[in-house]
Amino acid sequence: MSTDGYVRDLRASIGSRPVNFIGAAALITDTGGRILLGQRTGGQTWGVPTGISELGEALEDTLRREVHEETGLHVQSAHLLEVISGPDTHHRLANGHEFYAYTALYRVTAWSGTPEPDGVEIAALAFFAPDDLPALVGPVTRRAAQALA
User: Fold this and answer.
1) Which residues of 39-78 are buried (b: 16+ CB within 10 A; e: fewer)?
2) For residue 59, what are the domain limits?
3) How far apart are CA 57 and CA 28, in angstroms?
4) Residues 35-73: pLDDT tens digits?
5) For residues 31 and 42, what is the distance between their CA atoms, to the nearest angstrom?
6) CA–CA distances in Å: residue 35 to residues 17, 25, 60, 71, 73
7) pLDDT tens digit sequence for 86-116
8) Out of 10, 23, 61, 77, which could bridge 110 as a Cys pair, Cβ 3.0 to 4.6 Å?
9) What is the CATH number of the domain that holds 93?
10) pLDDT given for residue 135 in this prediction
11) What is the domain count for the chain?
């Protein structure tokens, strides 16, 4: 089942009450140590590639799928840095739906391809030096940036 279908079915049953979502995020750097960030469509903030898991999907597969969907890149190798969770991962969307994000942050150690934004979720992609980052969104991207320090 796709993530969209799963969330739609879940929300039809429980409404906007808070739920837990598990997902994966990618800390991707180029050979110069710059971090790849994406600018979400309709927003000014930047973040690492991330997304929620499909029902029953392994986190490593979520990582590879989300990176490819959002950036066009292929993850060849990655290792788990940490799982980000807790009260600061609470989100309330404009439609009133609430969720807590439990996110496995991976350091991508090998990748191939040319970064291309999908134009649906991601409007732009760029590599940034760790000391010259734009406005960052959320605890996942802030933790990814801290991992480079």
Assistant:
1) bbeeeeebbbbbbbbbeebebeebbbbbbbebbebebeeb
2) 3-148
3) 21
4) 999 998 887 789 999 999 999 999 999 999 999 999 999
5) 30
6) 35, 13, 20, 13, 14
7) 998 998 989 999 999 999 999 999 999 999 9
8) 77
9) 3.90.79.10
10) 77
11) 1
